[in-house]
Design brief:
mainly beta; Histone H3 K4-specific methyltransferase SET7/9 N-terminal domain; 3 domains; 6-stranded antiparallel β-sheet; 11 strands; 10% helix; globular; MORN; MORN repeat-containing protein 5; flagellum
């Protein structure tokens, strides 16, 4: 753990993480659930710093089935996902709370929207710099590097500052 910056709270069997535990990554993402032979195994939840979560069943470190829930309560569905698409452009807060009066546009699910740094994109869990291809959370901490597919999706669909 000292080399990765991670923290493990739980039991060990033969020197391997085993049983019900909490595993905290350097990004402050937390896994709470079952471990077996040093891997996520059984039921467990990933809690992200943004407030979102991923509840899943794991087998030897791989997801068997899971459900992603955004910080505002919206649940992602892999099939028939129609949230904010061409059929229904409302944001989740508009679905829950109703639309604003005519002439007042809601630009994001958050109202008022975040101020996006110049040249960056708001990709939902942080700001994306297309030149460095780095996504940082809204507090400026590193989240991840974007691969080609994510880069193209962000540039095509997300709001730019």
């Amino acid at each position: 753990m000292q080399y990765t910056g991670s923290q493990y709270i739980g039991d060990f069997v033969d020197g391997r993480m085993e049983g019900h535990a909490e595993y905290i990554l350097p990004t402050e993402t937390r896994y709470v659930g079952e471990m077996k032979d040093g891997m996520f195994h059984g039921e467990g939840t990933l809690y992200f710093p943004s407030g979102s979560r991923y509840d899943a069943v794991w087998e030897n470190g791989l997801v068997v089935k899971g459900k992603y829930t955004f910080a505002d309560g919206l649940q992602y569905e892999a099939k028939n996902w129609h949230y904010c698409d061409g059929y229904d452009r409302r944001f989740y807060t508009e679905i829950c709370n109703g639309l604003k009066p005519a002439g007042i546009s809601q630009l994001t699910n958050m109202d008022p929207p975040r101020k996006i740094p110049k040249g960056s994109y708001d990709c939902g869990d942080g700001f994306y710099n297309p030149f460095t291809r780095v996504i940082k959370d809204y507090q400026g901490r590193f989240l991840r590097n974007a691969d080609d597919d994510e880069h193209e999706w962000i540039v095509r669909t997300c709001r730019r500052g």
